[in-house]
Amino acid sequence: GESVGLHLPTLSVQEGDNSIINCAYSNSASDYFIWYKQESGKGPQFIIDIRSNMDKRQGQRVTVLLNKTVKHLSLQIAATQPGDSAVYFCAEKVQNAGGTSYGKLTFGQGTILTVHP
Amino acid sequence: DVKVTQSSRYLVKRTGEKVFLECVQDMDHENMFWYRQDPGLGLRLIYFSYDVKMKEKGDIPEGYSVSREKKERFSLILESASTNQTSMYLCASRYRPASGANVLTFGAGSRLTVL
User: Fold this and answer.
1) Nearest CA in chain B to A93
2) Cβ separation of A43 and B107 shorter than 8 Å?
3) CB neighbour class for B67 (10 Å; exposed up to 12, middle 13-18, buried from 19)
4) What is the pLDDT of residues A30-49, one digit of tens each?
C-alpha cells in the first residue's frame, strides 16, 4: 500500500483564507519530505521541503509542519489565491537498503485545492 | 531553470503496439525517473536511471523497459501496449542545489491512451 497518504482528497476555500493540506506517512525512518503543486496540464512543481530534524519550515506564503511523533505532515498556505488552485502532493524520500536513494520519492495520492473568488 | 522536455504530450496507440516515450533534460543531471500518474493513486515510480546505461526498477516496472544511452535522454518503452497502461507518464530529473535539497524537476507529462 501507499506509505504516504492524504487525509482529504479535496479542499475548497475562499480567496484570502488560509489553507491546510494534511499528509500521513508510515515509514518512521523517513528523513526528508517534500511538497509539490500540480496545475492542470502541467507536471508537478516543487513548493517546499523539510528534513526530519526540523519541525517547521517557512517559504513565501507557505509553511510545512512535521510531527514525527504521529508521522504527520502538513502544508499551510496563507491568504490563498485563485492561482493556488491545483493538486498538491506530499512525498518522502525513499532509501535503498544500502542507504542510498538516488533521489527516489514516494508520493501520496494528492489533494485537490479549489480556491473560490 | 532546468528544463525537462517530454516529446509527446498526447499519444493514442493500439493494444500490442510498441510505444516509445522520450524525455530530455538540459542540465547534465545524473538521475532521471519515469513515473505514471493515475487518479487516486498519485505518482508511482516505474524505473529510474542513476547514470548513463545504469537503471533500476521502481515500484511498478512490469510491462515497461527503459533506455539511457546518453546522459540527457531517458526513454520509456512499452514493448506491447495494453489498455491498463493508459495513463499520464511523467519524466523527472534530479536537481541537488547547494542546500542539499532533493528536488525532482518534472516534465509536462505524456498522456497515453491505449485502445
Assistant:
1) B102
2) yes
3) middle
4) 889 999 999 998 999 999 99
φ, ψ of residue B85 in degrees (nearest 5): -100, 5
Query: Which of chain A's residues have a Cβ under 8 Å away from the Cβ of B107?
Result: 43
CB pairs under 8 A between A and B: 64
List the strands of the sheet with A19-25, edge to edge: A4-5, A19-25, A72-77, A62-67, A56-58
Q: Which three cell numbers stand for residue A115?
A: 480556491
| Structural domains of chain A ordered from first start | 4-116 (2.60.40.10)
**8 Å CB contact of A102 and B94:** yes
- Select the CATH number that applies to the domain covering B4-114 from these four: 3.20.20.70, 2.60.40.10, 1.10.569.10, 3.40.50.300: 2.60.40.10
Query: What is the model's pLDDT at position B65?
Result: 97
B103 in contact with chain A, both atoms CB, cutoff 8 A: yes
Strand B32-38 relative to strand B65-70: parallel, antiparallel, unpaired?
A: unpaired
